Amino acid sequence: MTDLSSLLQPDRGQPAHAIHLVDKETFDSWLGIQPQRHRTAVAAQKLRPSINASAILPGERPDEWSVVTVVADAKALTPWCLAKCAETLPEGQYRVEGQEPGPAMLGWLTGQYRFERYRKDEGKTGPRILLTGEPARIEETVRLAQATATVRDLVNTPAGDLGPADLETRIKALSIEHGATLFVTAGEDLAKGYPMIQAVGQAAGEGREPRLIELEWGDAAHPRIAIVGKGVCFDTGGLNIKPGSGMKLMKKDMGGAAHAIALADLIMAAKLPVRLHLLVPAVENSVSSDSFRPGDVLRTRKGLTVENTNTDAEGRLILGDALTRAGEATPELIVDFATLTGAARVALGPDLPATFVNDDTLAEALLRAADAQSDPLWRMPLWDGYDEMLKSDIADLVNAPEGGFAGAVTAALFLRRFVPENTPWAHLDVFAWRPGAKPGRPKGGDAYGLRAAYAMLKERYPV
């Protein structure tokens, strides 16, 4: 993983290159009071007041150069307004002239993330270090950036190197780091206790067997919360096999698990006063003679029966058993993350996680945190009128209704069947992938809703 911990440092007056922040409104007035050498440099570099544009400004001596960069609002910084600088400036130390970087520290860190597991270290530049007069903010900002890097690393790793056993290894390391307890259910115990997880993963070969991975941490006297993440390490679609184009990115189908693992790490590192229960059903949805079939009726841990109408709607199946297990411990809150439906992406695109919440107070807290963290969520309806779409002629419900209407909603309604009544629950249908680069957010695996969920939990369970 990219180590981001040294890229923020307390400002003790050490030498550093200044970063001057301007916006469209202040650009001309700033330029008008600059010395001639700065105006010449700006003209030579053809700097215009467009967001993320920047220029190097010469100093009186060669090592005294500074930087000017254009942001949306120089008085209201965002997490991403310095990210382009972090990606492109020469290595060295920097400080924002005349103000603290505040929220922009996050993008400074995430802009220097690199996934280099499979590439030679060629042309790598040194670190860009940002100084801040708010040292108390450094530790938390680094945690958030490292959590984002965790999601990116896990999602970016090809399925050949990240199967169910590898997810187990990652969570085991987390349990050791934080003094948590690890439980893994596999084999006959999985088949008896979690039949939907077993059914989805049973076609995978030796070494890729399905399992339910659970971690518990914290004082048993504290409020119990459950974090659940969909861990489909690769999704062929099963016998309802995907075309090649649809299978191309299916290494990211464990993106929900990546979010859940990163969130659990944040919770434990911050020592939030909760009893944490992390649950990751880890499977590979493969094709073999042992594949579960369209038309099969599946038993569930809850006791319901599910007519499997589409083997490519497998994520909700494994989550159903995991949510049932989470509810058995009587948590006061359940949050799940899943790369669940293409319908959510059609409706909202990659940047907005479709967010389903069965409790208005919880929904308001999540959306408030999302706004404060610049980590957007979009609430979608758990529309009771569509619950009838889940009816089956031969079982208690189907996993994938025909017709394709409201696909993200019906998937969430399916999950709701396995959440204890009156337990506050939030379901985030995330994409976990950034199809195009933005400052601080490279193309590839990425975290969506992670910071919002963590901020909500910090507000709900203050240290």
TrEMBL record:
CDD domains: Peptidase_M17. Transmembrane segments: none annotated. PANTHER family: LEUCINE AMINOPEPTIDASE-RELATED (PTHR11963), PEPTIDASE B (PTHR11963:SF20). Keywords: Aminopeptidase, Hydrolase, Manganese, Protease. Residues 310-317 form the Cytosol aminopeptidase domain. This is Leucyl aminopeptidase family protein. Pfam families: Peptidase_M17 (PF00883), Peptidase_M17_N_1 (PF21337). It comes from the Bacteria. One of its GO terms (molecular function) is aminopeptidase activity. It comes from Stakelama flava. Belongs to the peptidase M17 family. The keyword Metal-binding does not apply.
